[in-house]
Amino acid sequence: MRLVLISDTHLPVRAKKLPDVVWQAIDDADVVIHAGDWVNVELLDELEGRARRLVGCWGNNDGPVLRARLPEVARVTLDGLSVAVVHETGQAKGREERCEKAYPGVDLLVFGHSHIPWDSTSPGGLRLLNPGSPTDRRRQPYCTYQTAVIDSGRLKDVALHNL
């Protein structure tokens, strides 16, 4: 199962559209995960129509229309892997332990908010991924997104893509 992970798209404020290479990855993916801060509902509509499967949550910059259609925390099991998607996880210090307590039984936590790519594993085995942003690099050298594969309940081939 091929995944594309994105977050903090902030459309159309930070960019007018997703980069073409991200759309190509979405077209090739089995599941697209968006960790919030869509800003405009049009991207949600477009992804729902184009992605084979979409899992997403709302972020702090998402208004009432997006919050009515998306959960604060999305939870799903993908090919035997328990996944949660949330926008904010708080400060970096202590994140692994804090999230492990907040999301018991979850194998993969995808989050956003910081626009800073992240890939770590908690002491108990919770994998934490933040794909950064494909449209707003802020203080990062590149805009980014992530891809990964789930195979029989195991996450593998996690890759960060610089734009």
Walkthrough of the structure:
It is a single chain. The chain is an alpha/beta fold and 163 residues long. It has one domain: Metallo-dependent phosphatases (Purple Acid Phosphatase, chain A, domain 2, 4-Layer Sandwich). Helices cover 20% and strands 32% of the residues. It has four helices and ten strands, in the order βαβαβαββαβββββ. The strands form two sheets. A five-stranded mixed β-sheet has the order 3-2-1-9-10, with helices on one face. The chain is globular. It starts with a strand and ends with a strand. Residues 1-149 form the Calcineurin-like phosphoesterase domain. One of its GO terms (molecular function) is hydrolase activity.
Strand proportion, as a percent range, falls in 25-35%
Mean pLDDT: 97
Q: Quick one: CATH superfamily? A: Metallo-dependent phosphatases
**How many separate structural domains?**
1
Radius of gyration from the alpha-carbon trace, in angstroms? 14 Å
Question: What percent of residues adopt helix (DSSP H or I)?
Answer: 10-25%
Shape: globular
SSE blueprint and pairings:
Blueprint: E1 2-6, H1 20-28, E2 31-34, H2 41-50, E3 54-56, H3 64-69, E4 73-78, E5 81-86, H4 95-102, E6 108-110, E7 118-121, E8 127-130, E9 144-151, E10 154-162
Parallel strand pairs: 1-2, 2-3, 5-6, 6-8
Antiparallel strand pairs: 1-9, 4-5, 7-8, 9-10
Keywords: Metal-binding
InterPro entries: Calcineurin-like_PHP_lpxH, Metallo-depent_PP-like, Phosphodiesterase_MJ0936/Vps29
Pfam families: Metallophos_2 (PF12850)
